[in-house]
Amino acid sequence: MFTGLVSDVGTIERIERRATLHRLRIASSYAAESIAIGASIACNGPCLTVVAREAAAGGSVFDVEVGAETLRCTTAGNWRDGLRLNLERSLRIGDELGGHLVTGHVDGIATILDIEAFDGMSRFTLRAPDDRARFIAAKGSVGLDGTSLTVNEVKGDTFSVLLIPHTLAATNWGDRRSGDGLNLEVDLMARYAARLVEARGVGAQ
After folding, report:
1. Are 25 and 12 within 8 A, CB to CB?
2. Which structural domain range is residue 45 located in?
3. How far apart are CA 17 and CA 107, in angstroms?
4. pLDDT by residue (tens digit) across 141-171?
């Protein structure tokens, strides 16, 4: 479980590509001794398992494996060497919950339609996948590339989020351009609320 508060921006150093499994080596500022083999780290949204790690200049490098389902449902299949990734380590009991509850299970890919920069901030307008748009509500929460954000406006399958200067500086959002795809995770409560409504409707028939 995560909060969507990015704690580091890592860089992909190497990708070993197989048909249905990719292995990535990621450089980060995390201390190597603080990363356990088998630990979960959210990398641009998807929750990935650490399979190797070692100390390196500036922190550490760690390896994760990306399986077929993650390659199919996320942007991970298009990642490349040198790409910067938003990183977040999993919550521990007693940690502050400053964003919203994020599972690291990506629901689909949202596409950036427009970026409006003003006063050091940026407003991003995005299109959600058709089958996920109904879960996104104004003033609700959404996870985008592992970042917890508040939805400003919703119009059909499009919605907007506003990033303050701190978020732009502390994440890889400053690298984003119109047309880019982002890993979308809808709010956990919205997902379950919708499922309960659907189940109630089926039961009433």
Report:
1. yes
2. 8-89
3. 23
4. 999 999 999 999 999 999 999 999 999 999 9
This prediction has a pTM of 0.92
113 in the same domain as 141: yes
What is the distance between the alpha carbons of residues 88 and 104, in angstroms, rounded to a whole number?
10
Domain presence at residue 149: yes
pLDDT tens digit sequence for 78-96 = 999 999 999 999 987 777 7
- What backbone phi and psi angles, to 5 degrees, belong to 68? -60, -45
Rounded distance between C-alpha atoms, residue 90 and residue 104, angstroms: 9
The pLDDT tens digits for 178-189 are 999 999 999 877
How far does CA 73 lie from the centroid of its chain? Answer: 12
Domain match, 82 and 114 both: no
Distance, first Cα to last Cα, the chain: 36
Q: Could you give the number of structural domains in the chain? A: 2
Q: Which residue has the tokens 């954000």?
A: 149
Same domain, 118 and 83: no
